[in-house]
Design a protein that fits this description.
The protein is of the alpha+beta class and about 400 residues long. About 40% of the residues lie in helices and about 30% in strands. Strands 7, 8, 9, 12, 13, 14, 15 and 16 form an eight-stranded mixed sheet that branches. Strands 3-2-1-6-5-4 form a six-stranded antiparallel sheet, with helices on both faces. It has a two-stranded antiparallel ribbon with strand order 10-11. It starts with a helix and ends in an 8-residue tail after the last strand.
């Protein structure tokens, strides 16, 4: 093995592996460099835990001459017998290096050894990848070299694990920041925040279709059901809307108890308002069907649900609002206020989907005129429209 080559690989990783713009490309190039430097690698795995509401971790698997395989595991992996009996469980839980030589009888305590033997692998080493705060991820390294890894080769692997951990930590932190922002404020807002739009009062204006919805009878529901059941119902109820909103180009900005605020940006330089509003209406129809079909068993009865959504279009102020260093990335403006008032009118009228005159005028052909209604805080009454295909529910 060439010590100069390994030093070069270490420096390449410490410098950010700039010739490999993605983690998969880094994994591929790093392993190929190690092989050229004299390490007889067969299969290499990197296993990284994530801060994600649905994904426990990601794995990257390299083999000579093949594309890097990417995979994810959910939180159930922690309780699976396969994981509990694997060397990786020891690495994750104790931060220890684990070696399983195929010709070593002591290694048979790991069920994975038989799979490795069948593949022709002679040696397996699992190494911790330790972050600067002590957080532990894991890597695995295998070879088909007769007799397994030499002491010199093991030392080389241990030396590579340190800069590899630093690279993964930086990439993971960046990805985690992006995922958390997407999860809590939405994709577009997250991109703006990561791009440096973090100061209070730093706002933009944009044209958008506005969606403001509310679950009917939520106060009474909360009063008669256990809090845990209410939370479960809310999650299922929001699932009925969010998938359709995102699929049709919208972004959920805020949950307010049982309320949901979403926006669908309209390009100011292209006349795409009719297309955007058509997508919003389709999302509203899909959400209406999903909420209508939602049934949640509670004790000996089954809960069914109704909701209302108000659709409006207008100019909004979009950005950082708050006090001191506690900010919220949201949207405000008369257009948002009017959407909120329309949603209350929808409730009084027993309607599921209502629209302002501006929205109905853009997205024609689906509406019936419900009349003019006084709107609190507005000097003029608002004309409200309901869907032709909807029969009002008596309230």
């Amino acid at each position: 093995m060439n010590a100069a080559d390994f030093q070069e690989i270490n420096e390449w990783l410490i410098g950010g592996a700039r010739s490999a713009p993605t983690p998969s490309q880094m994994m591929s190039e790093c392993c190929e460099r190690l092989v050229r430097a004299g390490l007889p690698l067969w299969r290499v795995g990197v296993f990284v835990r994530t801060l994600h509401p649905e994904i426990f971790g990601r794995n990257f698997i390299w083999k000579p001459g093949a594309e890097v395989e990417l995979g994810t595991v959910d939180f159930d992996i922690q309780n699976s017998p396969e994981f509990s009996a694997s060397p990786l469980a020891i690495v994750f839980r104790q931060g220890l290096e684990v070696r399983a030589r195929i010709d070593d009888p002591a290694s048979t305590r790991f069920p994975i050894v038989e799979d490795l033997r069948a593949e022709g692998i002679t040696d397996y080493v699992a190494l911790p990848l330790v972050y600067t705060d002590g957080f532990i991820n894991a890597s695995s390294w295998t070879t088909k070299q007769p007799g397994g890894f030499t002491d010199q080769q093991l030392s080389a692997l241990r030396s590579i694990a340190v800069p590899l951990a630093r690279y993964i930590e930086i990439v993971t932190l960046r990805r985690t920041a992006s995922l958390l922002l997407d999860t809590y404020v939405g994709n577009r807002a997250g991109e703006r925040i990561l791009g440096g739009q973090i100061r209070r009062g730093h706002t933009d204006t944009m044209n958008a279709a506005i969606w403001l919805s509310d679950l009917r009878g939520f106060t009474a529901l909360s009063d008669r059901l256990p809090p845990e059941t209410v939370v479960d119902i809310l999650n299922q109820y929001f699932d009925c809307q969010v998938a359709s909103i995102l699929a049709h180009g919208g972004e959920v900005l805020k949950y307010m108890g049982d309320g949901l605020l979403a926006v669908f940006p309209i390009d100011e330089y292209v006349d795409d308002a009719p297309n955007v509003c058509s997508n919003v209406l389709e999302a509203a129809r899909e959400s209406r069907e999903a909420v209508t079909a939602l049934q949640v068993p509670v004790g000996e009865s089954t809960e069914r649900f109704r909701f209302g959504v108000a659709l409006h279009v207008g100019r909004i102020l979009y950005g950082n609002i708050g006090g001191g260093n506690r900010l919220d990335f949201t949207c405000i403006g008369p257009a948002v206020n009017l959407a909120a008032r329309l949603e209350k009118i929808a409730s009084r009228l027993g309607r599921t989907v209502v629209a302002s005159e501006g929205f109905a005028g853009i997205c024609r052909g689906s509406w019936s005129d419900l009349g003019e209604f006084p709107v609190a805080g507005f000097s003029k009454a608002a004309r409200v429209y309901g869907l032709f295909d909807e029969t009002p529910v008596e309230v």
